[in-house]
Amino acid sequence: MHCVRKVTDTLYWVGANDRHTPLFENIHPIPQGVSYNSYLLLDEKTVLFDCVDWSAAPQLVENVAHLLNGRALDYIVLHHLEPDHGAGLWAILQRWPNAAVVSSLAAQRFMDQFGFAPAGGERIVAKEGERLSFGRHAITFYAAPMVHWPDVMVSFEETDGVLFTADAFGTFGALNGKLFNDELDFPHAWLPEARRYYANIVGKYGPPVQALLSKAAALGDRLKLLCPLHGPVWRTDLAWFMGKYDLWSRYQPEDNALLLVYGSMYGGTEQAAEALAIALAERGVDVSLYDVSTTPISHLIAESFRCSHIALASVTYNMDFFPPIRDLLEDMKALNLQNRTFAVMENGTWNPAAAKLLASFVTGELTGCTLLEPKLTLRSTLSQSQAPELEAMADAIAASLRP
Question: 349: exposed, middle or buried (C-beta count within 10 Å: 0-12, 13-18, 19+)?
């Protein structure tokens, strides 16, 4: 059975939802699933915008065949060739072998490397500023390299003001029948997954995202719809969501808040982190507390993009800080997190060493990050006599968070 939804009078969503894959890119948990968005334009020429993951290819073919109703498929426009969008191309070309494939030059190369298309079909290389007309509708291409991958392009359809955005403005989560952002409680139910998607998938590439935002801004009030490759289509509040992307890509915090992450072996560090969280809450601080050993790192990265301040509480482990804390910091570095204020707590039964090493990483490996004093050192557990030290740390964090 076909599953399609109308976007405009001539444009349809023909993608699919994946509620079975546990890990996106085999690393990021997606308990609410993910959508693979593909769009079909019916004009004098018919155009398929992007494909889907191989697992969803039968649904894509059924959706497209239903809407074409015997017509030929003239073009396939591929904005991004990562397998969750490119692998279904083979199934489409098996059904409609005469369709011309349009993409960037890099995408053409990736297409061959992955083996997504048989040899011999017509291919068109799209370049920055080039225009392609399909009848009443036409698109203009804009390069967006490194908005996740180097092959990425976006395109703007002029008649209805649709920007096909590739992986930009994407979101984790299956759509469950609701295609548009205003059909969802996006700010509450979906924004955390949109942030997690951005921070972990696109977050490293802030300057390329800024370049894309500039190109989108130049479209002015002609821009009416954002059609990403994952998540809902945006037809209202475009400026609000693009504003989030502006903050994230400039590595500016979304909220004046504290992310408190602890790494504990036997409960002493966890208890101290809990006590610090209580002291901060009593001071009116917006604090979120996580166990680094049980929380997927993608969630912690998303929170680090949201929060202005980060506190790390780590045991000393083999004269270093706790390995899962190191994994988190290495991910922050890899994803280019910047401009945050850190506080540090350490624990060590006989020779605490984590705080010095944490401080060295934060100030030496992360861009534009600063370290608050005082640090707090535990020896196995937080003793009652250290209550003033804990209060002093809470006071310092709370003072730093005040506007």
Answer: middle
